[in-house]
UniProtKB/TrEMBL annotation:
Name of this protein: ABC transporter ATP-binding protein
Domain ABC transporter, first and last residues per copy: 2-236
Organism of origin: Micromonospora vulcania
Claim: Nucleotide-binding is one of the keywords in the record: yes
Family of this protein: Belongs to the ABC transporter superfamily.
Region feature (Disordered): 237-256
Amino acid sequence: MLCVEQLSAGYAGGIVLHEVSLRVLPGSIQAVVGRNGAGKSTLVHTIAGLVRASSGRIEIDGVHVAGRQPHRIAQSGVGLVPQGRRVFSRLTVAEHLALAAAPWRAATPGGEGWTVARILELLPRLAARLRHRGCELSGGEQQMLAIARALLGQPRVLLLDEPCEGLSPDLAARVRELIGVLAAEGLTVLLVEQQLQHAIEIADRVAVLEYGRVVYDRPTAEARIDPAPLAAMLSIATAPTPPGTRGNPRLWADTP
Ligand SMILES: Nc1ncnc2c1ncn2[C@@H]1O[C@H](COP(=O)(O)OP(=O)(O)OP(=O)(O)O)[C@@H](O)[C@H]1O
């Protein structure tokens, strides 16, 4: 479980996150949406230890990890799939996976854990691209590789920063499907998502960040029934809803 309590963080220029609190249960997906610059990436980076928390708590399965070095937080069970994928252009898929599956990341004791073989079974597209370099992969394949790399760290909490950014609708849908499978495997998922309608489709809860503060955090079931309050909060235009199809997510327009 991921528990963030009263978390504040920022940069030399000032505080960006203001007393953010979120609780994400194992096997569930918490989406975080918000306008550009709201602090979504800062939140993810602070949980991963890349940005130092100025106050508040970050707990992974009850263990307080704020203030630890990023590699220690990774060892505590946090996997990060960064915005932009950060795949090495000159390394092959096989080399990426071999690096990520370093010995200290042994399979979880008592469990099967994520192995390269298991990941390639889940992602056959990567299996077909093992000898290809990062720069030769499509955006979707790079995203799959970024997720595979994070999984090889045996995370219990997976942080995904806009994993569908720049992907075709078809590929984005496949990435979302994969995220759903990972949550069903018991992973705790924090998902930063630009497209509100996609967040509502896939997540169990959705939180809105506004100027670094959580101004909304509710089960997505509520937004599926009546998306108007959430859409209004993000100033998203929604198409008129025909009678009998209230809240159908396909009616959603794009986020700003
Ligand atoms: N490394 C940094 N140094 C200083 N300020 C930063 C840094 N990274 C982000 N910021 C600032 O922090 C604020 C929040 O940025 P952040 O990237 O977290 O927002 P975001 O919600 O993820 O935005 P986007 O949707 O555009 O990715 C912005 O004002 C941004 O300029």
